[in-house]
Amino acid sequence: SGIVLVAINPYEQLPIYEQDVIYAYSGQNMGDMDPHIFAVAEEAYKQMARSVKNQSIIVSGESGAGKTVSAKYAMRFFATVGGSASETNIEAKVLASSPIMEAIGNAKTTRNDNSSRFGKYIQIGFDKRYHIIGANMRTYLLEKSRVVFQAEDERNYHIFYQLCASSSLPEFKDLGLSKCWHIPVLCW
């Protein structure tokens, strides 16, 4: 294991993830500046270029800790220092690549109204000049228990509520959703 960063989700936007902060951390050595997700991303990027070997950043935490947002900031850093931020907006493309997956894999929890109930493995490809050329996102460990049980004030996966809310549409007639449970549905 290499560097460990403990980050806390402040549950509000702070000006510590702006473009100028990315440039401030770019090219710096670990420890020269305050601990930051950009410092971890810079070290991984530098090690990839220096050793010409794959690098990994593991983002872990409990529900609502800000894992998806931290991964998004790391990808924004790579896109910016890799010279492809304005061309591709890679982090937006990777994270928004599958709205269906979000509906199937996200649910309301007591800590987060749109909590991801699965793990994500994001692989970013770089060319020989270390510019991003593509990305792939895989999901794993879908929380299957949520299908049959939810704690108080929590919900099943969004897709079930979306299907029930749409049960009267003609294209859903053959799905047999007319006998949907009478459950409250959030408007999207």
UniProtKB/TrEMBL annotation:
Pfam annotation, one family: Myosin_head
GO BP term (any one): actin filament organization
GO cellular component: cytoplasm; membrane; myosin complex
First and last residue of the signal peptide: none
Entry annotated with the keyword ATP-binding: yes
Molecular function, one GO term: ATP binding
Limits of the Myosin motor domain: 1-188
Keyword Zinc-finger applies: no
Superkingdom classification of source: Eukaryota
Entry similarity comment: Belongs to the TRAFAC class myosin-kinesin ATPase superfamily. Myosin family.
PANTHER family documented for this protein: MYOSIN, UNCONVENTIONAL MYOSIN-VB
Protein name stated in the entry: MYO5B protein
Organism: Poecile atricapillus
Name of encoding gene: Myo5b_2
